[in-house]
Design goal:
Length: 433
């Protein structure tokens, strides 16, 4: 069985699109009780994406003062004292939007303060260009380097309003970003404004709008970004439960397992069969944080994240979306039951490679433990229609079969495409006793 996760994150982006502010923390858990998370954070790149951008070009600014201020403000993100550097930039020119972006990120002690700084950045942004309105009308705001401070300010407004629970206002700002520059930029997470849009739609109760946005052709590339593919698959899975009212096992996952000889089967981002199982593969540890079994630590949120399965990436997603999952009755249990069933299928099929990748102990004891916690016992777990009873019978696994039957799995299953387990045992002369 091929894992979809091998195809995830094909477009590398590592900057955290959550736009972390200096005072924000992942959660309230004790960092010392999760040394793995603590170690992961200490090993991340501590730089800042803005300072590494293309240098500002004096030719595009209406005055030397604004040019020098913007240049200084961009480098403030990686200075020892970002606040002092931002204030110095404002002394050069009070019309420096990037300086206010820096103050929002590093000086603000509350969301209200951060929003005030972002609002000020938006207010003074027209001064960075003699043809501001004309350039905005070209819808290349991120592509025009001198306008990025304005784009960042609007993105900051959108994210801060979302964090404050003002989701309808936030959504308008996200849509403004799309209007400012609809192009998809795989190389810059700061332009990855799409990251939180599904969440905001769902928080205002517009699940249909969220699904429509997710499936919009111009947005489909967001499923391939290493900084957002895990988040989008988990959110799409929640939409399957909430909007599509899926309550059983994601059997349709097995209709599109990647096949080396079939390029279309490897195109993960145009079709979404079995999304909850893809989400689990994208970031297996996410479910433990969503359920609260594993606590998010009281640590600063880094500017950089690892890949889609990294703890910083998972933590950023859960920080924003755990509330949605927990407030949707039955959603987490449905997700957990799907995950346990999938793990059982991997163990039954003795898929050592997948079990190793997902850190699953491929043993009879683990299989029994998963069944005891709850699984979809009679679900189809292969592309040809076999249930776990079929697989255990045909694979001559009497111990596993006994566990399934003791858990309540059915021996007689009405499926037109495949014989009964007993018929298969007789035909192939299996003797699972």
């Amino acid at each position: 069985m091929g894992l979809f996760s091998k195809e995830f994150g094909t477009m590398i982006t590592i900057f955290n699109p959550i736009y972390p502010l200096q005072f924000e923390r992942f959660g309230d858990g004790n960092p010392d009780e999760d040394p793995e998370f603590k170690s992961h954070l200490s090993n991340l790149n501590q730089g800042h994406e803005v300072a590494g951008e293309l240098h500002v070009d004096e030719r595009f600014y209406p005055s030397v003062a604004i040019y020098k201020a913007e240049k200084k403000a961009r480098m403030a993100y990686v200075s020892e004292n970002p606040i002092a550097e931002a204030n110095a930039a404002l002394k050069i020119s009070p019309n420096c939007p990037e300086a206010y972006n820096v103050l929002a990120q590093f000086k603000a002690k509350t969301y209200d303060e951060a929003l005030g700084f972002y609002n000020k950045a938006v207010e003074v942004a027209p001064n960075v260009s003699g043809e501001f309105d004309k350039e905005l009308s070209e819808r290349k705001c991120w592509g025009l380097n001198h306008l990025r401070s304005y784009f960042r300010a609007v993105h900051g407004q959108a994210n801060t309003l979302r964090k404050m629970g003002r989701c309808e206002e936030s959504l308008k700002k996200y849509h403004l970003l799309e209007k400012l520059d609809p192009k998809f930029y795989s190389w810059s997470s700061f332009a990855n404004w799409r990251y939180h849009v599904l969440e905001v739609y769902m928080k205002i109760g517009d699940d249909k709008g969220a699904l429509k946005f997710a499936l919009k052709k111009s947005n489909s590339d967001a499923f391939g970004l290493s900084s957002s593919c895990g988040a989008w698959f988990w959110t799409k899975a929640l939409l399957d439960y909430r909007y599509k009212e899926q309550r059983g096992f994601a059997e349709d996952y097995f209709d599109l397992v990647p096949n080396a000889g079939d390029p279309e089967s490897r195109n993960l981002f145009n079709r979404f069969e079995g999304t909850i199982l893809r989400a689990f593969q994208a970031s297996p540890e996410t479910l433990n944080f969503l359920t609260g079994e594993r606590k998010l630590p009281n640590c600063r949120i880094p500017f950089h994240m690892g890949n889609w399965a990294s703890l910083s990436n998972i933590g950023s997603y859960c920080l924003s979306n755990a509330e949605l999952w927990r407030n949707t009755p039955g959603a987490l249990e449905w997700a957990a039951r799907n995950v346990r069933t999938f793990m059982c299928s991997l163990i039954l099929n003795q898929d050592m490679e997948s079990c190793k990748a997902l850190k699953i102990k491929c043993s009879a004891n683990k299989f029994e433990e998963l069944l005891g916690e709850g699984a979809f016992l009679d679900a189809r777990v292969t592309s040809c229609g076999k249930t776990m009873v079929h697989v255990a019978t045909c694979s001559d696994m009497p111990q596993m079969l006994r566990m399934l039957l003791n858990a309540g799995a059915k021996v007689k299953i009405c499926r037109s495409r495949i014989p009964q387990p007993l018929q298969m045992a007789c035909y192939y002369n299996f003797n699972p006793t």
